[in-house]
Design brief:
The chain is α+β, with helices and mostly antiparallel strands. It contains 11 helices and 10 strands. It has 2 domains: about 10-170, 3-Layer(aba) Sandwich (ECO RV Endonuclease, Chain A); about 175-290, Arc Repressor Mutant, subunit A. The model is unreliable at about 1-10 (pLDDT under 50). It comes from Cryptosporangium phraense.
C-alpha cells in the first residue's frame, strides 16, 4: 500500500515543490528516468562480457557502484548543473541523488542534511521503480551511523518523501520473466548463435531487448545473430517463427496482436496462414499469430529486414 507523503509548511517545502515541478517538466511521464535506471542495470550487469542478468549475480562492490552510475547517468540524460556540495543543481536548488536497491535504504552523508535528496529505488525482477524528493532534516536522521557518518531516514523521514513516481513500470528484462529452467536451457550451449535461437524460441510473444540478445550471445556482433544468413530469423523460419524489429516492423506486431517493440527491441511470433481478412500480408499470404499448442505446418514468411509495407 502506497503511503501519502507528509508535507510541511514553509519555504523549504516550496523548494521541494519547485524541484518536483522542474523534474516533471523535463520528464512528464517518467520515461527518461525509467530509461536511466534500465541503462544503469544493464551497465552493471555488463551482460555481453559476463553473461550476467540478475542482481544476485553481482559482486558487492558492483552493487555499491550502482548508485554512482545512477547519478552519472541521470546527469548525462538531463544535463543538470553540478551542485556545490551535492550532485545536482535543479531549479536553482542543491539536490543530491541517492539510490537504494531496497525501499528506505538510502545512506545519507552529513553534508546532505539540510539539502534536498532525490531518492530512487527499483527492482529489475519486478520491473518496477520509484523516485521522490525529500528535504533531509536532522529530525529525519535514523539513530546510529556507519564509519563514514552516513545514516538513513527514520520512519518520519521516509513518510515525508514527496513521491513523483511510485511503483512505475521498468522496461522488463526478459531473462527475469522466463522460468528459471527455461533460462538455464537457453544458456546451456557452447554456441552463442544457438543460445540466441533458444532465447527467441522461448520468449515467443515477449519483448526482447537487444541487451538480452548481447547477454545470451556474448559476441560483439550479437545483432548479426538475429538476422537471416545464419541468424535466428533463418533458423526459426522453418518452425513458423518470425522475429520483428521495433525499428522496421512495429506495425506488423500491432497487426498480430503482440507487444509492440521499441527501436532497440524485438519480438518473436509463431505465425500460421490466416483464413480471415485480419492480419498482415507477408510473402503474398495473410498471417495470424498461432494459438498456444497449435501445430505449425508451414514455414514462416520471409520478412524484409529493413521494413515491410503496411497492408
Amino acid at each position: 500500500m502506497i503511503e501519502q507523503p507528509v508535507l510541511f509548511d514553509g519555504d523549504e517545502d516550496r523548494d521541494v515543490e519547485q524541484v518536483a515541478a522542474e523534474l516533471v517538466r523535463l520528464d512528464p511521464h517518467g520515461s527518461r528516468w525509467a530509461a536511466v535506471i534500465r541503462h544503469t542495470y544493464d551497465m552493471v550487469y555488463n551482460g555481453q562480457e559476463t553473461g550476467r542478468y540478475r542482481w544476485d549475480q553481482l559482486m558487492k562492490t558492483e552493487k555499491t557502484h550502482f548508485g554512482t552510475l545512477f547519478e552519472i547517468n541521470g546527469q548525462r540524460e538531463f544535463q543538470f548543473e553540478g551542485g556545490v556540495t551535492t550532485d545536482y543543481r535543479i531549479a536553482n536548488h542543491q539536490v543530491d541523488a541517492k539510490w537504494s536497491q531496497s525501499m528506505g535504504g538510502w545512506m545519507l552523508p552529513p553534508e546532505v542534511f539540510g539539502e534536498i535528496a532525490l531518492v530512487a529505488t527499483g527492482s529489475d525482477e519486478e520491473a518496477r521503480w520509484s523516485l521522490g524528493l525529500v528535504r533531509v532534516r536532522e529530525e529525519y536522521r535514523r539513530e546510529g551511523a556507519n564509519r563514514d557518518k552516513k545514516s538513513s531516514l527514520n520512519r518520519r523521514g521516509r513518510s515525508a518523501i514527496r513521491w513523483l513516481w511510485r511503483g512505475a513500470q521498468l522496461r522488463p528484462n526478459v531473462l527475469l520473466q522466463l522460468p528459471m529452467d527455461v533460462v538455464y536451457h537457453v544458456f546451456d550451449s557452447e554456441s552463442g548463435t544457438e543460445r540466441t535461437h533458444r532465447l527467441f524460441r522461448a520468449a515467443e510473444g515477449r519483448i526482447v531487448h537487444r541487451n538480452s540478445v548481447a547477454t545470451v550471445s556474448r559476441q560483439l556482433d550479437h545483432q548479426k545473430r538475429v538476422r537471416y544468413n545464419g541468424g535466428s530469423r533463418s533458423k526459426l523460419k522453418a518452425e513458423g517463427i518470425i522475429i520483428l524489429s521495433g525499428t522496421y516492423h512495429s506495425h506488423i506486431a500491432a497487426q498480430l496482436g503482440v507487444p509492440i517493440p521499441r527501436p532497440d527491441e524485438y519480438v518473436s511470433v509463431r505465425v500460421v496462414p490466416s483464413e480471415d481478412e485480419i492480419g498482415p500480408v507477408m510473402d503474398g499470404v495473410r498471417w495470424r499469430r498461432a494459438h498456444p499448442g497449435e501445430v505449425v505446418a508451414c514455414a514462416a514468411p520471409l520478412i524484409p529486414e529493413r521494413g515491410l509495407r503496411e497492408s
